[in-house]
Amino acid sequence: MKQITKEQAAALLMQLKGNQYITLHTRTDARALKTGNPHKMIEKLAKTQVQSGFKYKNSLDNQAKREGVEALPVQERTWGERIENTPLVFYKGKFYLETKPEKVLEDVTYLADGKEVAKESIERFLPKKKKGTSTQANLKKKILVRDYAISSIKKMTHNGETYEIV
After folding, report:
1. d(CA 162, CA 24)
2. How many helices (H) and strands (E) are present in the chain, helices listed first?
3. Cβ 26 vs Cβ 148: under 8 Å
4. Tens of pLDDT, residues 1-12
5. pTM > 0.85
6. Is 13 helix (H, G, I), strand (E, B) or coil?
7. Which residues contact 58 (CB under 8 A, 6 or more apart)?
8. Which residues are registered as beta bridge partners of 45?
C-alpha cells in the first residue's frame, strides 16, 4: 500500500479517464445540525465500490431505456464547478470526487465522539435522505450520485493498487 497526500490523491484522480471503478474507504461527518444533539462529532465509516468518470446524462438515458420511459432533461449541478475531463468537482477551495455508488462492501459503522455506536442511537441526529430530483421523477430505479471530499477518503483502491491518503 502506498501512502499519498490529499494533494497527490487529487492529482491521481484528475488523471483518470473515462468510467473507472474505485473502492473507497471513507470517513465522513454524518451530523445534521440539530438542536439537542449532545455529540460534538458523528462520523460514518464506509467501504464502497463506486464508479467515477461516468456521464450522469448517459446513466439516466440508459435507465430510462431499460424501464421503457422517456428520459427527462438533465438539471445542471447546483454547487461546485466540474473540472472538465476529470471526475472531480471544485468547491470553496476543496476537491470532491463525483461518484455513482455501486455497492457497499462492508457494514457501515458510526462513531459518536470517537466511539462506535449503533445507528439507532444517533439516527435522529443524522441527515434525512433526499428524494430524487425531477430529473429522475419518472424512473423507478434512481441513479445515485455521491460526492466525496478528498479529505474524507482515507483509502482507495484502483487498478489493483491501494493508496492510503494521509
Report:
1. 10
2. 3, 11
3. yes
4. 999 999 999 999
5. yes
6. helix
7. none
8. 27, 109
Q: Decide: 53 and 22 in contact? Cβ < 8 Å.
A: no
Residue 67 near residue 141 (C-beta atoms within 8 A) = yes
Question: 24, 19, 165: which is closest to 105 by C-alpha?
Answer: 24
Burial class of residue 13, CB neighbours in 10 A (0-12, 13-18, 19+): buried
Most distant pair of Cα atoms in the chain: their distance: 48
8 is written with which cell numbers? 497527490
What stretches of the chain adopt beta strand conformation (E)?
2-4, 20-29, 42-52, 81-82, 88-91, 94-104, 109-112, 115-117, 146-149, 153-158, 161-165
Question: Residue 38: how many CB atoms within 10 A of its CB?
Answer: 8
Task: Please write the tens of the pLDDT for every residue from 139-166.
Answer: 889 888 999 999 999 999 999 999 999 9
45: region left, alpha or beta (phi > 0 left; psi from -120 to 50 alpha): beta
Residue 132 has pLDDT above 60, yes or no: no
Mean pLDDT for the chain overall: 91
Length of the chain (residues): 166
Domain segments of the chain as ranges: 2-165
- For residue 26, give the 3-state DSSP assignment: strand
